[in-house]
Please model this.
Amino acid sequence: MAQVTFLEAIRQALFEEMERDPTVICLGEDIGVYGGAFKVTQGLLERFGWERVIETPIAETAIIGAACGMSYLGLRPVAEMQFIDFIGCCFNQITNFVAKSNYRWGAPVPMVVRGPSGGGVHGGPFHSANPEAYFVHTPGLKVVYPSTPYDAKGLLKSAIRDNNPVLFFEHKFLYRRIKEEIPDGDYTVPLGKAIVRREGRDLTIVTYAAMMHTSLEAAELLSKEGVEAEVIDLRTLLPLDRETIVQSVRKTNKLMVVHEDTKTGGMAGEIAAVVCEDAFEDLDGPILRVTSLDTPVPYAPSLEERFLPSVNDVVRTARELAKY
Amino acid sequence: MPIEVIMPQMGESIFEGTITKWLKKPGDRVERDEPLFEISTDKVDAEIPAPSSGVLKEIKIGEGQTVPIQTVVAVIDADGAVTTAPPAPAKPAAPAAPAPAAAPPKTAAPVIPAPTAVPPAPVRPTGEKIRSSPLVRRMAREHNVDLATVPGTGAGGRISKKDIQVVIERGGARPAMAPAPSVPGAPGTQAHVVLENAVPREKIYFGRYEVQPMTTMRQRIAEHMVISKRVSPHVYSIEEVDMTNIVAVREKLRGEFERKHETKLTFMPFFVRACVEGLRAFPTVNASVDGNNVVLHRDINMGFAVALEWGLIVPVIKGAEEKNFLGIQRAINDLAERARTKKLKPEEVQESTFAITNPGVFGGLMGLPVINQPNVAILGLGAIQKRPVVINDAIAIRSMVYLTLSYDHRVVDGAVSHQFLGRVKHILENWDENIL
Model:
């Protein structure tokens, strides 16, 4: 057991999977000599060489197109978006082609697209995206968004070994801020399984990625006021673990969803609908959402701080819900 | 077409509002968006515009009343309707908006608590919408509970999971919740407050037993006692007073007093007069607590507990500090008599600022009473008994009494409590018989 950062956990997963399976290939911008913009891929080139650590031109469509082609040829490519915002360039390829390939032709695409996402680091409107909602709407994909080093490593390994295309979002705010002890060597965390991070009886907070930590912090504050919040970390957004969510709502009878993505058309609405479908008669209050504001991510730190959901926002909403 | 005017929600966490002023009278013409009434909430005071043009047909909630949000407060006959038309027949059963807090229940025999200390029991007129939740409705269905009998403590008076759980744990709405119609003075429609059980229900029933539903008065007393003990941290001070002089004064003057004034002479007015003096000297004992404020009452309204065969009641001598000894004795005798014959008016059991209770009449050496909310202290009188007492190193036989003061330690400290009792003791032990 060793203390590792969120970033180091991801690097370990890549390294170990490339060791384990020679068909695993990494490709992306500056991932070789420079070790990646955030140094996630540092050391891979030295160990695995140019043929398996491929530096690409600054052309995201080329990266995704190449990765898709490699998949057809029996490889398991892991494509890096230098910032996940740029995945928008490849929207057509991913939603129209990669996601449908196995359905249309029986040709699986076992590729992973990974990259740094999320705000809170003053990246501004082009380097802070939370693009999960676009892709959660697309059948044929899997979408993973971990919050802890242990999960990041275990889920990335599962993603690489999965035969479906998996989008793996790495919240960059967590890269070097979150550390924990993880087991040495190989382990996986199953895709599609949420986890209860904190048990509570009064209300359920469903969340994921960086907001998981915000929610846990809020839950501790709420506990001092006598409100015991259960915090569920989704970890995988598609397929969604309806069972864990519904089970918790059946216990607490109140639900709020906290995510960093903007509100309109976001995950929270989908989760609310799931609970209305599966557990309407277990609800003792409205389903509330705490999310970013419906604007692009602002550059100015003061504005970004206002834009992102804060611990206070979560506490305030939870109080209201508890009182309802 | 009648348009209902509702109490708006002025902010996310606001669940009720008080109507401070109506700017229009029934029959007045109003224009859409013209200010119609003024409200005061926890957060804001505001003018509320009319939702529609027309004629103000009816004001349902008067000035000074506090109602939950979404309550219909008035009806406007919107333009296009015949103004004399009767209200839409589709809503025959919306006779009165709920004004739970505003009017104290008009029972024939008013019961003990001052109404401000007690969360209002919601009274829902037939046909009024009951606010709950999908979960609560399901639980009601599964446990056969009539939601109309469940008081709501959630936001805006909503019935929450906790509210219905309490009812279910008590065994549902059937026997335990049914109003006891045989109780004197209990109107059958009175909504009931649900009392919490200290242990699970199944641990209560064993062996041979008989279940007696609580009377309305018993329920009110129980509820009031629970709230008082929960809200006010009780601390107790005890003082011993030599009553020999007063016993002698009373014995000596009793016959003449009763002949002259045609009313009984008891010990009570001595204690009331002494407490009035104590409260004048220590006004924090004559107070109430509102959040972070201490409300010091300028009037001294002396409550005194009257034991009844069917319970207990605390009538109030209003303005006790302005009455002389005879006036106090008359008020005590009058109120106590009417308490026993159920002829008290509701206002005669309200607005006490302090109270005295007398477990001594039943022989109790002393008692540690529960504070009568919204007071901050209550004096308990023990039995007056002859006891050997050391005076100037000699043992004497004196008529002694224990006085106990239960006080709310949020605002009254031990020092003040003992100073107050010391003052009362001083007055009692140095009574001048000419005061009578």
User: Anything to note?
Assistant: The longest strand of chain B covers residues 394-408. Chain B touches chain A through 13 residues (CB under 8 Å). DSSP finds seven helices and 19 strands in chain B.
